[in-house]
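Colleagues,

For the teaching module next term, I've prepared a clean inverse folding example: a structure given as tokens, and then the sequence designed for it. I'd like students to try predicting residues themselves before seeing the answer, so please don't circulate the second half yet.
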């Protein structure tokens, strides 16, 4: 049995001997290394995929481990560094700070925080530095990186106290902003005491972002200094009175002290219309360096057309319904993105491109007149907008003042003859060689619907040469006139008349005459009341003329 054992190799012993030999070699190779590190690097690790057989770490794996250790060391150093920075983490569970409030010999409110015999804070939780009624505030003088402003209070007899900005009493302010500053100046609260006897430069309080000097009606005052924002949106550092104690406050409670004057001014450029009777302008004129000549729009007061606005200059035509409506909606009720200048000088207006405006709109309403001046848009589509009535320069998107980018072409009507059939008394039609006149008559009747409401009912008939035309065919022919479509700027000038239509109305509106001339290979030129307005497809006009011939002959008229 012993011989058999000697003849059969013990694999476990062989493995151990190899491992010992390898370990010895590694120890010799790393003789000058640190013992602990050498032991770590030369130890063996089992690979689960090798059926339990031991496997040495590769050189690549060792390098990765060394690199990871270096990264961890760096992170530890960074963490140590960060821990040395001013603490800003809120602790809602901390007991309230122990405070002593007083007024010094100069009448300035002061606050002392409770400390132990070693000068350490007893409690660093939340507290109140000052609390008075807002009505007790006389004024708040603020200096910040953008300049200075003073909030003043006024209490009309029998009314609540109101707050405004000194020197800007005639300007509309953003609702509640001045009152909000007064509220934050009456009650000054903090969320945590950061440090007493602090190095103020660590918190931005050696050169504060803002200093508020609050004066109360009892003759006392308070000084609040606003430093840096704490990390992680925890709040803002402030100092109070003459003390070098640093407090953490809610950033929203001191944000208004960082305002510029322009931040207080209302963003309302023009007041919205609140009375439907004053909604439409009687006339509106657009001019400026962007336009070769002024464009004038008027409201269509006549009931003869399905149109709200007419263009009277530089051409006399019905205005495009969509473009004109957009312009009408971009004058009243405008709201700015920001206020950039109040009471601008001539030089300031020039710097904003407003001394010679890119576009100017002047509109007359039953209750007021409005004038606005716009600069050329920048690469982001922003324009400076000046309202002389408010004496303020604003910024606004070009899309919100489309009158600054319109054109005569855009204002040309899509349908040149949007006449209401009930208002037409005669139609004079020519196909270029023959002329026809249709007499039109509309009878109005009062009818009662199923709900008992009275409504007007219209019955229209037409005749040619004393003979009444078929109602359905005439209605289709008239609809074809209404739907003549202006497809845009004409290519070429027509010189041969193809068709002419004149509508004479039963209202006070002067007749409208549409003439169609030869154009290019596919389109005809359209002229309305003597002004070229665009073009129409040849096929549609040819079919309309064909329909007129069918109408006269008593034949069916096809709709376009």
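(Answer key — instructors only)
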């Amino acid at each position: 049995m012993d011989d058999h054992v000697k003849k059969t190799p013990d694999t476990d012993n062989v493995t151990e001997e190899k491992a010992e030999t390898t370990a010895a070699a590694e120890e010799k190779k790393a003789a000058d290394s640190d013992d602990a590190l050498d032991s770590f690097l030369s130890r063996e690790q089992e690979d689960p995929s090798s059926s339990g057989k031991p496997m040495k770490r590769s050189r690549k794996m060792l390098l990765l481990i060394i690199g990871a250790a270096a990264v961890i060391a760096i992170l530890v150093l960074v963490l140590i560094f960060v821990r040395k920075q001013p603490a800003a983490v809120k602790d809602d569970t901390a007991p309230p700070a122990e405070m002593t409030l007083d007024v010094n010999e100069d009448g300035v409110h002061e606050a002392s925080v409770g400390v132990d015999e070693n000068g350490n804070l007893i409690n660093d939780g939340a507290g109140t530095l000052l609390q008075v009624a807002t009505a007790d505030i006389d004024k708040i003088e603020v200096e910040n990186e953008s300049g200075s402003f003073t909030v003043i209070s006024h209490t009309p007899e029998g009314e609540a106290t109101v707050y405004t900005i000194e020197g800007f009493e005639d300007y509309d302010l953003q609702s509640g902003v001045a009152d909000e500053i007064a509220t934050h100046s009456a009650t000054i609260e903090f969320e945590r005491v950061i440090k007493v006897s602090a190095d103020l430069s660590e918190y931005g309080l050696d050169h504060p972002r803002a200093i508020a000097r609050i004066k109360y009606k009892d003759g006392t005052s308070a000084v609040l200094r606003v430093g840096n924002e704490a990390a992680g949106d925890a709040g803002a550092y402030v100092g109070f009175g003459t003390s070098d104690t640093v407090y953490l406050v809610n950033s929203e409670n001191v944000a208004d002290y960082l305002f510029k004057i322009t931040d207080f001014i209302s963003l309302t450029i023009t007041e919205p219309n609140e009375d439907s009777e004053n909604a439409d302008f009687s006339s509106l004129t657009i001019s400026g360096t962007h336009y070769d000549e002024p464009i004038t729009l008027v409201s269509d007061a006549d009931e003869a057309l399905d149109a709200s606005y007419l263009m009277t200059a530089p051409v006399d035509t019905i205005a495009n319904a969509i473009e004109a409506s957009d312009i009408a909606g971009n004058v009243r009720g405008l709201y700015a993105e920001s206020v950039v200048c109040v009471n601008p000088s001539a030089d300031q207006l020039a710097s904003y491109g407003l001394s010679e405006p890119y576009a100017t709109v002047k509109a007359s309403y039953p209750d007021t007149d409005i004038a606005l001046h716009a600069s050329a848009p920048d690469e982001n589509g922003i324009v400076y907008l000046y309202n002389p009535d408010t004496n303020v320069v604003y910024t606004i998107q070009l899309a919100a003042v489309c009158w600054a980018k319109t054109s005569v072409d855009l204002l040309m009507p899509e349908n040149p003859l949007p006449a209401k059939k009930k208002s037409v008394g005669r139609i004079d039609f020519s196909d270029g060689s023959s002329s026809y006149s249709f007499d039109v008559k509309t009878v109005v009747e009062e009818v009662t619907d199923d709900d008992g409401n009275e409504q007007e009912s219209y019955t229209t008939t037409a005749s040619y040469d004393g003979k009444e035309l078929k109602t359905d065919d005439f209605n289709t022919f008239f609809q074809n006139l209404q739907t003549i479509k202006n497809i845009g700027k004409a290519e070429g000038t027509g010189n041969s008349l193809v068709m002419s239509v004149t509508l004479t109305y039963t209202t006070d509106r002067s007749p409208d005459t549409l003439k169609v001339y030869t154009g290019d290979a596919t389109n005809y030129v359209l002229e309305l009341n003597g002004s070229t307005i665009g073009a129409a497809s040849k096929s549609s006009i040819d079919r309309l003329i064909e329909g007129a011939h069918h109408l006269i002959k008593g034949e069916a008229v096809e709709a376009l």
